[in-house]
Amino acid sequence: MNFEEYQQQAEEIFQIPPSFDNSLTYVTWVLGVSAKAGELSWRISQLINEHGGEMDYQTNLQITEVMGFILWNMSQLASELQIGLDDIAVSSLQRLIQLDNP
Question: How confident is the prediction along the chain (102 residues), in pLDDT tens digits per residue?
């Protein structure tokens, strides 16, 4: 699966009701990213403090699930803004190359 396919399927599975105005929709997705990023930080903290940095199966599942929700919220926000996840990925890699080769 590529990012474009993921974004299309994610958009088909869940849609914000049309009665929401755009600004509320944007805030919904941004808050989702923010909340899940906080949860990811907490999970990584647990991994370090409680497991000595050793990833067990359950922790792997929990972190994967949280990262999936971050991806989903980002995908939904990108769709609302009419930006493709593929475009975001390419742009990100181009920026990383520039940072590595000043």
Answer: 999 999 999 988 887 777 777 778 889 899 999 999 999 999 999 999 999 999 999 999 999 999 999 999 999 999 999 999 999 999 999 999 999 887
CATH value at residue 53 = 1.10.287
What's the whole-model pTM score? 0.86
Give the C-alpha separation, 74 to 63, whole Å.
17
Residue 32 CA to residue 69 CA, distance in Å, equals 8
> How many alpha carbons lie under 13 Å from residue 58 in its C-beta half-sphere?
3
Residues, the chain: 102
Residue 11 lies in a domain: no
- Say if residue 14 is exposed, middle or buried (CB neighbours under 10 Å; 0-12, 13-18, 19+): exposed
